[in-house]
Amino acid sequence: MGKLGVSLYPEKTAYEADVAYLERAKEYGFTRLFINLLLFGEPDPTHIERIKKTTIKAHGLGFETILDVNPRTFEVLGIKPQDLGYFEDWKIAGIRLDMGFTGKEEALLTKNEYGFLIEINMSNDNHYLDLIMDHHPRRSHLIGSHNFFPQAYTGLEEAYFLACSKKFQAYQLRTAAFVTSQQAEIGPWPLQEGLCTLETHRRLPLAIQVAHMKSLEAVDDIIIGNAYASDAELKQAASAFHAAVTPIGILPANDLTELEEKIILRSCILIEAIIPVI
């Protein structure tokens, strides 16, 4: 069984609100956390300490935290990619390389002495993963996750998503993808039209996205890309994710008779994970 995750953007939120969100997510069985550390401006020690405070708190709550970084992140922090000791006391599980290197560097990073996971971008149907494998990484510390896409009509098509995921499954690597809350409004960019991996998910209820992602069997972990999802969404997403049988969504016709509606409802196993789409 994979993990359910949430995302936080500490540069745009209050620490207390982030902690409250994590505590609610924990109640519903969420155990993974994505935090954006793509630092585009000048170094801000206060901002960095704020993120560190959040990752330490998340660890205490039982979350596995992955920091999203790129070459600019290392430049701003004044360190090199191999200097992962900088994060030793952040209580994180690993880092996600938003932009990759040549393959050799990623393989070497998986052998870091701190046990950090190295997560790479899955949304590329090319030979990037093969290049890393050519340099014999420590597979237990190499994982992947798809991108999320904030603008409508820029998300992945299902066939492309499956093709990219298959490459990682062939190497038996742990994987993840993003779904989007319909209530949340916080993400890394000013544009907010959802933060999902699959374009077909952009306007769907969160629980239906989770159920569909689960049914595709293409990734292990599912992460809500934007913050903050509502309590109802967290509960429904968790029900869909942990359901023994993959739940379905029901789209009733507008002209159903009362009898037809009763027949449909009686034909379904009425559990919380079966979410009517109204």
TrEMBL record:
Signal peptide (residue range): none
UniProt cross-references to Gene3D superfamilies, sorted A to Z: Aldolase class I
Top-level taxonomic group: Bacteria
Domain (6-phospho-N-acetylmuramidase N-terminal) ranges: 4-238
InterPro entries per UniProt: Aldolase_TIM, GH, MupG, MupG_N
Any Pfam family the entry gives: MupG_N
UniProt-recorded name of the protein: Uncharacterized conserved protein
Organism of derivation: Listeria grayi
Classification of source organism: Bacteria, Bacillati, Bacillota, Bacilli, Bacillales
